[in-house]
Amino acid sequence: MSATNTSRYTSVAIALHWAIAILILFMIWLGWNMEENEARYQLHKSIGISILILSVARVLWRLMNPPPPLPADMKPIEKTASHWVHMGLYVLMIAMPLLGWALVSTSKFQVPTVLFGTVSWPNLPFLGGLRGNEIVHAVLETLHSKGAWVIIGLLVLHVAGAIKHEVSGEEGVLKRMIPGLFGSTAAPQPRARGFLLALGGSALLFALIAAVPLISQSTGNASAPAPIPPAPEGETQVVAPATIEPNWVVDYDTSEISFSGVHDGNDFTGTFKDWSADVSFYPDELANSAVLVTIQTGTAATAKKLYNDSLRAPEWFDVKTYPAATVRLSDFAKTDTGYSATATLQLKQRSVSTPLAFTLDINGDVATLNGEATFDRKELDLGQTSDPNAQWVKDAVKVTVTGQATRK
Question: FRET partner for 97 with CA separation of 20 to 30 A, picked from 72, 305, 345, 368?
Fold first, then answer.
């Protein structure tokens, strides 16, 4: 039978077919080569969601643009096998990413999902109550793992069937799905329909889900400290620090509070974009000096979106419950190189004190400050669920303060 009688898939169907096929093959390799590699783990999640969205588009497109009929000379049993292999692949192209999404949503390790380092992706909301449930998580993990082997088997059957019909005496099927490979012998592609519904609908679905973290973040930000919730049983209640009467005005345009640490052997730095300070400092009366800094923890910003999302999560700053942290400086003293003070940080339900060393250059009524303090994130209960042994993030976090203030 001539190839010119072979019906062809539409260009969109061909593009979606090969895009999903390539992503699935890469995912299979990635699934076996991402152990203890956070970058690959994030990439695995990113590609999984991409396959899900593309598969939704592929299913919608197929419903509105039915595939060409199988070759008339195929045996009935082969047609039945082809049908069920295709249906199995379609089911798994949707089910596998959903299982992976559910797996992440129920994990006790609260690591955010950031697609390709750019788009924050939420957990499945109806599984929120099952986070950390080891039984549910183990079942999902088993289904996800075994499903990978099933999809590998179906891919082998799919490819073997296509090759068999291409090299045998039957009418081939590969030319339907490989654009341009057979030149003028390929039949014309059918007229497509439903482009906006299939591709626009899947794009809209992606946008709606991706908007959830943005909406949650915007509604969760607070402009003022929230009341401190009761301390958990067995822990000491943190008392909000008393206000002070400032005699200096901070120039926030030239001032900065930054932090730095080490993650996976690499240095990282960040800043807090929103903070305020009441400064009562008397160089000749250090005993009467005090500083109170209020930091909006949700404004922590680094060069990596994954870090930003992680810092806002319950395991770290828990910005929805505790939108603000405070630092009180006391016990000021003169040193050989400048000054020292005790920095008491109140974050979530923890209060930790550490030395702060700083220099202060006072020129008339303008003071320029440079200071440093180091905190232990374990003492502050930061990241103790996913990384209690500091395997990924070192315990020591350095806080640097720079800026200027004018005397009232």
Answer: 305
